[in-house]
Amino acid sequence: MREGEASGYPKASLLLRAGARLVDVAIAWAVYRTAGPAGVVIALLYILFADGMLQGQSPGKKLFGVKVVFVPTRSGARHRDSVLRNAPFGLIIILSMMPELGPRAFLAGLAVIGGIEALLCVRDPEGLRLGDGWAQTQVIDGKVQADQPQRSTDQEGARAPARLRQQTEARREIEE
User: Fold this and answer.
1) In what order do the strands lie in the sheet with 137-141?
2) Is residue 59 part of a domain?
């Protein structure tokens, strides 16, 4: 998805997205607290990979009825897409691992990175965050069929760069 180009999907409810994120953070926190010394690494991996688990839905997103879609192919996000879109939140967890600054670095990262991501999500007409731009994804209402956007995008193929078009076609063939 290039800058200035609409994906064709309506903006998902920010309340549903926030609820889904809270559930996923609660799951990561529970894993962190119960998994012993490896807990922080397992929690980090969960946060990074969660959106690719259930065809674009983490457990929180499944519970709240929202879904992450890889826009070029209009399919549920894969693990690669999930890692790219959640990298900013992964960085916050990595900051917490700093031996001397752990809690302070975590809180500072949460304030700065979380604040930027939240502001972008609220201000963008499609609800895109920085991570969504990196991964070419968008969170949509789970009732919207991923392969059928709500707005017309009949010129999409003609505007996409050749490499992106080839990757999209190859991915569609693999999924079928």
Assistant:
1) 75-76, 66-70, 137-141
2) yes
- Residues 120-132 have a mean pLDDT of 88
Kindly state whether residue 146 falls inside one of the protein's structural domains.
yes
What is the number of structural domains in the chain?
1
pLDDT of residue 101 exceeding 80: no
User: Is-contact 17 66, C-beta < 8 A?
Assistant: yes
Q: Assess contact for 113 and 36: CB atoms under 8 A.
A: no
Q: Are 136 and 70 in contact (CB under 8 A)?
A: yes
Helix, strand, coil share of the chain (percent; to 5): 60, 5, 30
Using CA atoms, how far residue 65 sits from 21, 35, 104, 113, 141, in Å, is 12, 28, 34, 25, 6
Q: Place 8 in a pLDDT band, splitting at 50, 70 and 90.
A: confident
146 lies in which domain range? Answer: 14-175
User: Residue 156: pLDDT above 60?
Assistant: no
SS3 30: helix
**Are 122 and 73 a contacting pair, CB within 8 Å?**
no
